[in-house]
User: What shape does this take?
Amino acid sequence: MKAFAHLLDRLAFTPQRNGKLVLVRDFLREQPDPDRGWALASLTGALSFDAAKPAFIRKAVEARLDPQLFALSYDYVGDLAETVSLVWPVKPGANREPEMGEVVDALRGATRSEVQKLLEGWLDALDADGRWALLKLLTGGLRVGVSARLAKQACADMGGVEVSEIEEIWHGLEPPYEDLFAWLEKRSEKPSADHPGRFRPVMLAQAIDEEKDFANYAAEDYAAEWKWDGIRVQAVNERGQRRLFSRTGDDIGASFPDVLEALSQEGVIDGELLVMKKGQVSSFGDLQQRLNRKKIDLALMAKYPAGIRAYDILLDGARDMRGLSFKERRAALEKFVAREKADRIDLSPLQPFKSWDELAKLRAHPPKGDPEISEGLMLKRWDSTYEAGRPKGPWFKWKRDPHLIDAVLMYAQRGHGKRSGFYSDYTFGVWREDANGDRQLTPVGKAYFGFTDEELKQIDKFVRDNTIERFGPVRSVKANKDFGLVLEVAFEGLQRSTRHKSGVAMRFPRISRIRWDKPAREADELFTLEKMLD
Amino acid sequence: MPKPETILCPKPAGLYCAPGDFYIDPVRPVARAVITHGHSDHARSGHGTVLATPETLAIMAARYGENFAGSTTALRYGQKIDRDGVEVSLVPAGHVLGSAQAVIKAKGVTFVVSGDYKRRRDPTCPAFEPVACDVFVTEATFGIPVFNFPDASDEVARLLKSVKQFPERTHLVGAYALGKAQRIIRLLREAGYDKPVFVHGAMQSMNTLYERFGIDLGPLEPATVEKGSKKDFAGALVIAPPSSIDDKWSRRFADPLPAFASGWMRVRARARQRQVELPLVISDHADWNELTLTIGEVAPGEVWITHGGEEALLRWCELKGQKARALSLVGYDEDEGEG
Assistant: This one.
């Protein structure tokens, strides 16, 4: 439990993905079975307990510590689990510290009232860090920023294998993953991937380099289709198992029973999950209403009906199609979709073209309807097989040019790691008239990349020289009509948001240029931005 | 027995002993001062006479120059001196090199003024000695039950593990220049780390002073980049004052991993606020358990609390039937200061 507690703590304070990978990888190398497997499962959310309610934990601690002292402590710390873990009185001669595996086993078999007794015994036996981890585990709130994707990558790093190999077998595995670790430590064979309803690692596209790639590749070798603005999914109906996976293999089917229902034929298709109303695509914002919901809301499901626009076919009936060319797969896909009864599954149409120039025009001026809100185009070699990962050459994405606005730097926050001495995260705003008719800056977004190291130094200097106020790691920067730093911000799309003061939220904002030359008063107005709403 | 307040009482300049006409750790210049230890919020320059341990006097001289006071009297641990009928002696407090509790006896009343203290082992200074007394004047920097510190050597082990895990990064440990830095270096040496430790320029004089008093810190090198590249510090351990960790100064290092050694790191929100990646819970102050244990052990007639989390500690005393009051002295850094 102690090792797990230290891992949780380090993960929570380590912002970089690479750092987290090292921490998880080393943990998996060092810890024994089954503790490491249970830890991995709880990090990725595959194992969660809802075994202890805050009210119970509070009662337990108040039986051991004066309620007034507890209240002072809780006020000071602000987090219940953390407060309890810190103030729990030491009990000399308590049991030895429980291991992760023991805790999980006991919790799985225990009734609610038994859990409460167990919990108190464990809290007595653990130190403050261990107690914290235990309480987080029991209340189901780890929140340390480890995705399933990251966990799989850490397993791959641990065993020196490709992450796609892990993805392929992942859905046949169960915590505590002893067979997986045995294979990664070369003590046994690779666990079987033959598991009905499993995820198949996805093929991804490289971003095209307009300057170089068009000269190297012939237009007639490629098919083109729109890159729809939803989320990439893999829909599976195999030997009675229906699943919907994200492109990293997370099972998101529980949020989309309407889509699962529509998968009437045996097979696996690759497509874009979209909200579609009468065959017409809605904005990404509409799809977001449906994502990450634990409970199904029927009204919401009716209001935002989801469907799949199919790009590719990986399994047709029982036949594995991945070794065939895109041309052959496409023909099979068209037949497959034609056989689907529900209109929730339709075909992503190919866009015929003769030359790259012709395609460039299409990209710049998409026809009315769905293509207008696409993210751009996809290019796929007719002879490409379906290959896991992001191979260079067979598939390209060619995104639309981003939206641009000029905004004024308002706040800057210190970065992490290589950027820890620099103010590198920028909140920027645009002008808006307040109730008195005065022009005021209102924050519209935050960006922390898109600039060079040299530009970072320059902005950092500007921030330090023009700081008005400091709040912890954040500085507010001088910004008014007569003085301010204008940043040209690029972003992919804009949505209404009730969570932002400005009422809009940007997708993928980044700094595209620093406009040292531009006076702050000439930065954009909020209404310019509102016209760009999706 | 006379009322203790007639002998020792808080004044704007600090705790004042009327019959002996001296202050203890005054926060502004006074005629006569007794100084418990060298941290700048307790030891200020400009007093008429200063009474302190030889180590504390040396620390003050190193920080403020030889003429930091009109005159000085060095008092070794256990030695007694008379000030106008008041007996003063100094007893180890276990806080930093030279740190002492001031034991004051007047008119048949014994006071112990703890200064800052801790009860854990510290390889750089002698351990705290409990002294029976009528009034125990204690600090309470970490006087809330949430402050319960782990073993410092376990924290150092976590630091060393991280150095191994991230050999391409520079571990930048924020630690106060007097006491904390040297304690960490000693703990590193005890854990078998024998490579050079790189230190910020502001720490050099204290390190030299500690070595002069017989604390072996092993190989130390200045953390300055002269010609080489940033990569020179990859895998290195650098110790610097906390304020330099998140400042421009840290840019000279390869992908710095900020760590901070302080009791405040016990609370996660504090560590997040400072953007620390490796919080190390190492303090030179008593944690809640040490505070309550010490009060129980000294078992004084009265407890006076100088500064810190007095509310919780008063409550604890109330529950134990221990007479206690808060002095609420101002001028001692609770938060971002040394200690």
Summary: The CA atoms of residues 49 and 138 of chain A lie 5 Å apart. The longest helix of chain A spans residues 17-30.
